[in-house]
């Protein structure tokens, strides 16, 4: 009898301590998922507000004559083929649809160096600058560094600019 009373008292004290200090056991899988969720949510503001790690050259082309066709932006790293042979000689080419007579070409992950840009408004989407029988352009064109075409296209040296590997915003206005 004495032993039964001791067991009864031990059970009561065990129940009393559990009632005062409840212990909840979750399976290991659920604990790992919960911990992962806490870590992800703790880092969420850093992920959401972090800037893109890809720096590059962003080219804005404003005041395009119309929204017909597309704009082709060609980035050259040497004078070879500049600016007429962009399909064969350009380092990077971006073809973008015109929206509300504006376009924006983005060149990402470009290494630091010296470059030149040639931009055309390819109204008929044939991949080249349209010209008349005299060779005068019939579609819009423009170059970096404000280089202008007089009797021929400007040289690479006239259109070149230095790029340090950070974000660079350029604006190129087209000539028609």
Description of the molecule:
With 176 residues, the protein is an alpha+beta fold. Helices cover 28% and strands 26% of the residues. It has 2 domains: 2-49, no CATH class; 56-171. It has helices spanning 2-20, 28-49, 86-89, 156-159; strands spanning 56-61, 70-76, 92-97, 103-108, 113-122, 141-143, 160-163, 168-171. Strands 2, 3, 5, 6 and 7 form a 5-stranded antiparallel beta sheet that branches. A 3-stranded mixed beta sheet has the order 4-1-8, with no helix packed on it. It is globular, with a radius of gyration of 33 Å. The N and C termini lie far apart (110 Å). InterPro entries: DUF2141. This is DUF2141 domain-containing protein. Pfam families: DUF2141.
What are the defining features of this structure?
single chain; 176 residues; alpha+beta; 2 domains; 5-stranded antiparallel beta sheet; 3-stranded mixed beta sheet; 4 helices; 28% helix; 26% strand; globular
- What share of residues is helical? 25-40%
Which spans of ≥5 residues are poorly predicted at pLDDT below 50?
A: 30-52
Beta-sheet strand percentage?
25-35%
Distance between the termini: 110 Å
| DSSP summary, beta strand count | 8
The H/E string reads HHEEHEEEEHEE
Described by strand count, sense and barrel closure, the largest sheet is: 5 strands, antiparallel
| Radius of gyration, whole Å | 33 Å
């Amino acid at each position: 009898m004495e032993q039964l009373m001791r067991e009864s008292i031990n059970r009561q004290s065990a129940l009393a301590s559990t009632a005062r200090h409840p212990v909840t056991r979750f399976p290991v899988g659920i604990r790992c998922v919960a911990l992962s969720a806490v870590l992800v949510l703790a880092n969420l503001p850093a992920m959401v507000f972090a800037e893109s790690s890809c720096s590059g050259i962003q080219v804005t082309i404003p005041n395009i004559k119309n929204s017909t066709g597309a704009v082709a932006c060609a980035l050259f790293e040497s004078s070879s083929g500049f600016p007429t042979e962009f399909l064969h000689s350009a380092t990077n080419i971006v073809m973008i649809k015109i929206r509300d007579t504006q376009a924006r070409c983005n060149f990402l992950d470009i290494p630091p160096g010296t470059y030149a840009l040639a931009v055309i408004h390819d109204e008929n989407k044939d991949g080249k600058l349209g010209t008349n029988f005299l060779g005068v352009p019939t579609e819009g064109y423009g170059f970096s560094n404000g280089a202008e075409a007089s009797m021929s296209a400007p040289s690479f040296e006239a259109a070149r600019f230095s790029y340090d590997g950070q974000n660079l915003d350029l604006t190129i206005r087209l000539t028609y």
